[in-house]
Amino acid sequence: MKVGVVGAGSIGLLFAAYLSRKFDVTVYTRTKAQAKEINTHGILVKKGAGRKEYLVNALPFGEWQAREDLSIITVKQYQLAGILAKINQWSALPKNLLFLQNGMAHLQQIETILNGNLFVGSVEHGATRENFNTVSHNGMGVTNVAVFRGDLQPLRQFIAAAPKDFPFVYQEQYNQMLVKKLIVNAVINPLTAILEVNNGALIDNFYYYQVAEKLFKEITLILALKNESEYFQQVLDICRKTADNRSSMLKDIEANRVTEIDAILGYILAEAKKQKKEAPLCQSLYLLIKGKETNKGGIVA
């Protein structure tokens, strides 16, 4: 089975490396320089004290035509426009696409793809890209996947053939799966990015914990969640499990990159507006992150 991984950030490198053990993988990079580095030296995965190199074929994104049996789209939500523009230029549309973006704002974007099987997923792994071909695997997890539109069978075949120590778990309902990840991201990411703390600080610090709890309650009212305690327990469990990790949003701020705040809190604020509900905490955190992006040079105001 041939697999294409579109995007060579932390998640793209991690997936390309692990999946290359079972599949014929090609990773598509933003630059020719990164593709050359991967083709020359492979992908180096650092996990604890271990180091392992994986030989993976790499091509610049301009050469992606989705001819593989499955294309896994790992770019961030705000980068999807370029991906979709390319897809919509093709006369023959790709067969199977798996989208691994945070938040839920990307669902409206991928609806514009007219044909093919569309899958979505949520990633529980922790990873940090250190350079063009090196990724640190900071936290082991699973990748939950579901059918957004189309035939389930290709996804089932992929799950069955994937490495057992890098598992993919099928979920019946994509909406519930993404909501769970959205809530975790909406609580942990903006707070850690603003406070500039590791994930564990949100439960270790009494005052930070109270803010996280209030933010969670505001989000549950907007999303009309049932079983609130289960969702909040999931947030706490992730904070404990990744206590020493820095959230992706914090790492984006530190690296002067645009964050995924629009895909996460932006989506929740849009839902609040539809329902004519107040969301003062979400609104304040959203604006603070946008302010940090501007100050860091990640985006032009």
From TrEMBL:
It holds the Pfam family ApbA_C. The keyword Transport does not apply. The keyword NADP applies. Pathway: Cofactor biosynthesis; (R)-pantothenate biosynthesis; (R)-pantoate from 3-methyl-2-oxobutanoate: step 2/2. Its EC number is 1.1.1.169. It is an enzyme of class 1 (oxidoreductase). Coiled coil: none annotated. Keywords: DNA-binding, NADP, Oxidoreductase, Pantothenate biosynthesis. Signal peptide: none annotated. Residues 3-148 form the Ketopantoate reductase N-terminal domain. It comes from the Bacteria. Residues 176-293 form the Ketopantoate reductase C-terminal domain. It catalyses: (R)-pantoate + NADP(+) = 2-dehydropantoate + NADPH + H(+). Catalyzes the NADPH-dependent reduction of ketopantoate into pantoic acid. Belongs to the ketopantoate reductase family. This is 2-dehydropantoate 2-reductase. It comes from Neobacillus paridis. The lineage of its organism: Bacteria, Bacillati, Bacillota, Bacilli, Bacillales.
